[in-house]
Design brief:
This protein is of the alpha+beta class and 134 residues long. The protein has one domain. Helix content is 25%, strand content 42%. A 5-stranded mixed β-sheet has the order 1-3-5-4-2, with helices on one face. The relative contact order is 0.23. It comes from Pseudomonas fakonensis. Keywords: Signal. This is Lipoprotein.
Length: 134
């Protein structure tokens, strides 16, 4: 009976280890109140821009992305996450307003009389989802 309990615990531990070994990309999308709510678009058609376009457009919402740095998420994976999140709310493009690596957590380690504070860094990115008004 105890062996049967041990096997699921081992599997869960192995899965947790495998997941932490991969770089994670989390995204949170917020649609603006009062903005248009168009039908979803195709992720492959969503542009990623570094500045606001001169072409007429409306802002639909924003995307906040958090990505790990140990190991670092690939730029193409982050861009794909932006495209899929923007497409889900009907965006034609995402304007990246900031993209930086910054401290996201801290922890204390060492004995009581000689502690060190270590920081954990992560990549933070914010993009504004727009739709062209044609």
């Amino acid at each position: 009976m105890s062996k049967l309990r041990f096997i699921p615990a081992m599997l869960l531990g192995a899965m947790a280890l495998a997941l932490t070994a991969c770089s994670s990309i989390d995204a949170h999308t917020t649609e603006y109140v009062g903005a248009p709510h168009p039908a979803p678009t195709a992720p492959g058609n969503v542009e990623i821009l570094r500045s606001e376009p001169t072409r007429p457009h409306v802002r639909l919402g924003e995307i906040l992305v958090s990505a790990g740095t140990e190991p670092a998420a690939s730029v193409s994976a982050i861009e794909q996450k932006l495209r899929s999140e923007a497409a889900a709310i009907g965006g034609d493009a995402v304007v990246v307003v900031y993209d930086r690596i910054q401290p996201v957590a801290a922890y204390v380690r060492g004995p009581m009389w000689d502690r060190d504070i270590e920081s954990v860094e992560g990549r933070k990115l914010k993009g504004i989802v727009i739709r062209y008004t044609r």
